[in-house]
Design a protein that fits this description.
The chain has 653 residues and is α/β, with parallel strands linked by helices. The chain is built from 21 helices and 20 strands.
């Protein structure tokens, strides 16, 4: 067994790699997975090209800016070691200052606070030499930070937070400041990948100022540093920051000469400007003596050797990949995991059957999956059924609400904790056939962001089916958003689209309307909606009217427009009628009132119109009041996993 393998096995597990789809994160993630199975990586959106070939069972979705999502991922993995490789703002085109600070500092602060609730034995944070800012001439770890950009401020703030949590709160955390990493899976716009791509064309690319120097360190050496620190972290290291570099300067001119000499390129390199903000600094070199003293770590790959191996790797990689087509290709191909979210109310008998049918579909499609049953305070044995399933299958997760909030709240509750690349929403009564998911996935893999089921026929009395179809068409005609007809909640929603749906914060959640509102590429799949398999439907006339009101008043102002039009027409008619009466009185003074019938009809008509108008306005005002109250859309009380029913821990508990 190699020394690195021994170190990997010494790292406490389970292991969580945050930012596993990034350059450093992917290299750490892949290296760990070669030796261990208790390794999980987080992604944001579709699984990136760097994770091609890795089973989706080892990946989880994580939105670092969502405290709820952070809490859920930590609860699921229960990590003993965390490598946090996430970052935003290192490139010149990443200019959103608010997002830079939220991603690099605020999310780190939130994460460190949560780790005090878990038995984490090592938290290793990927810092940056940018933290030193203007003080960039071979600074020591103890030197003052002089940040010169939002990125430097945010990364420096994170390192200070780590110092506080480590030294004061005694959390086992350290910060590793990285210098100029290069190697496999580096971003295609960086120096070495651009160099490799041009070498294939037997030329050198334009370079930056030849006198700019960097401390180039191979990513394999950085990976070894992270693993070694995690394996040997003790209390004396808590809260410390360490430089991870070679301590050697190499100019861009020397890089160019290495490339020309090793690959016999006759073209003299050109020197110009690069847009990456990091290249604005003339000199950038590490003082790695502290990590050498504390962890006996030093770099092992000289630059020339690393350059040759990196170019060889990129040459091989570019035989089958194109930087220009890579993102599109991977976003379509790497769709291998789905979260099924089932809203359950009085569906205890159907839950085991739903599970078996879903499992068969996912196994047939070779999908990594999780099945989230949301028990919306069902009065039957739904929780026990879910607990029994979770005991025999770790893919099954249960959520229990404190009371019945409705299917829309149940779907939202499940969507907030889903960790796969897409979610499928189903009613728990088996009226949404799980077998249709196969057609959903096929269209999703071909590029659709949302695939919804279209009910071509319902197994119900013809007159009732006609009523449903008529309403859908009326609603579609008055809605301000293009609404599909005969489509319910049964759908597959890609993680990108789902996150935008969750950005809609209204309490009166109408999913199928929001699904249409966000746009994206949407396609339909026809299916026949069967009768409920067990028991009686929980819908009735009153509830159906409520659904209709929710739909219309959430996505249409047509009633108000109609009321305005009727008011205008009646006002005009009243004016004309009044004018007619005045003219008649003047021309024919002998005309006298002929009774009260006309007057009574007019009074009743205008009275009814006023009541209708007040009622419609009341509906809209009622929705405004409901939203203004800011009450939670649902309350989770229990989590069901691995055969246990545990109290739900919210992020602020």
């Amino acid at each position: 067994m190699s020394d690195l393998a021994k170190e990997i096995h010494a790292v406490p597990g389970p292991i969580l790699v945050i930012g596993a789809s990034g350059f450093l994160g992917a290299n750490i993630f892949r290296t760990l997975l070669q030796h261990r199975k208790d390794v999980f990586g987080t992604i944001h959106g579709q699984k990136a090209w760097r994770l091609e070939g890795i089973s989706a069972s080892h990946t989880l979705f994580l939105d670092l800016l969502s405290p709820e999502n952070q809490q859920d991922v930590l609860t699921r993995v229960q990590p003993a070691t965390i490598f946090n490789c996430s970052a935003f703002g290192a490139y010149s085109f990443e200019k959103d200052a608010k997002l830079i600070h939220q991603t690099n500092y605020v999310s780190t602060l939130n994460l460190l606070q949560k780790l005090e609730e878990f038995s984490v034995r090592a938290y290793v944070h990927a810092g940056s030499s940018s933290e030193y800012g203007l003080n960039s001439d071979a600074p020591k770890e103890s030197d003052r930070l002089l940040p010169d950009s939002h990125y430097a401020v945010s990364k420096g703030g994170a390192s200070l937070a780590i110092s506080y949590f480590g030294k004061v709160r005694r959390l086992p955390c350290v910060n590793l400041r990285l210098y100029s990493l290069y190697g496999p899976y580096e971003d295609s716009t960086r120096l070495i990948p651009v160099l490799a791509e041009n070498i294939l064309r037997e030329k050198l690319p334009p370079f930056v100022d030849p006198n700019v120097s960097r401390d180039f360190i191979h990513v394999s050496d950085a990976v070894a540093a992270f693993i070694k620190v995690a394996a040997h972290l003790t209390e004396e290291h808590y809260g410390e920051s360490y430089n991870v570099g070679t301590g050697k300067k190499t100019t861009i001119r020397e890089i160019a000469e290495m490339a020309r000499r090793n690959f016999q390129l006759p073209v003299v390199p050109e020197f110009g400007a690069m847009t990456d903000r990091a290249w604005d600094r003339k000199d950038w070199v590490a003082d790695p003596s502290k990590i050498k003293n504390d962890f006996d770590w030093g770099y092992a790959i000289p630059l020339e050797e690393g350059l040759l191996s990196s170019v060889a790797w990129w040459k091989e990689f570019l035989k089958t990949h194109s930087f220009f087509e890579l993102t599109k290709k991977q976003s379509l191909a790497e769709k291998t995991s789905v979260s099924a979210i089932i809203a359950c109310y009085k569906d205890g008998q159907a839950i085991p059957i739903m599970y078996e049918r879903l499992k068969l579909v996912f196994l047939k499609l070779d999908l990594d999956y999780e099945i989230i049953f949301v028990n919306d305070c069902s009065p039957d044995d739904s929780s026990e059924q879910i607990r029994a399933l979770s005991q025999k299958d770790a893919h099954v997760i249960g959520v229990v609400h404190s009371r019945n909030f409705g299917s829309q709240a149940a779907f939202r509750s499940g969507m907030e904790i889903a960790t796969k690349e897409a979610c499928v929403l189903l009613d728990g009564d088996l009226q949404d056939p799980p077998e249709v998911i196969e057609a959903f996935v096929e269209k999703w893999r071909k590029g659709a962001d949302i695939v919804y089921g279209k009910r071509v026929r319902r197994e119900m009395p013809r007159w009732l089916e006609t009523c449903y179809k008529t309403f859908y068409r009326i609603f579609a005609s008055v809605s301000e958003v293009k609404m599909p007809t005969d489509a319910g909640d049964f759908s597959l929603i890609d993680i990108r689209a789902m996150r935008w749906i969750l950005q809609c914060k209204e309490r009166d959640f109408f999913l199928r309307g929001l699904r249409a509102y966000i746009g994206f590429k949407q396609e339909s799949v026809d299916y026949v909606r069967p009768e409920r398999m067990f028991g009686r439907s929980t819908n009735n006339l009153i509830k159906n009217i409520g659904w209709a009101k929710k739909a219309v008043f959430s996505f249409s102002r047509a009633p108000l427009h109609l009321l305005t039009a009727v008011g205008f027409m009646t006002t005009l008619a009243s004016g004309l009628f009044g004018l007619f009466m005045v003219v008649s009185k003047l021309l024919f003074p002998e005309i006298a009132p002929r009774g009260i019938t006309t007057v009574s009809l007019l009074i009743m008509s205008f009275g009814a119109l006023n009541l209708l108008g007040i009622g419609l306005l009341g509906e809209y005002i009622g929705k405004i009041i409901e939203e203004a109250k800011q009450r939670p859309a649902f309350i989770r009380v229990n989590r069901i996993a691995h055969g246990e029913v545990l109290p739900w821990r919210e992020q602020n508990d």
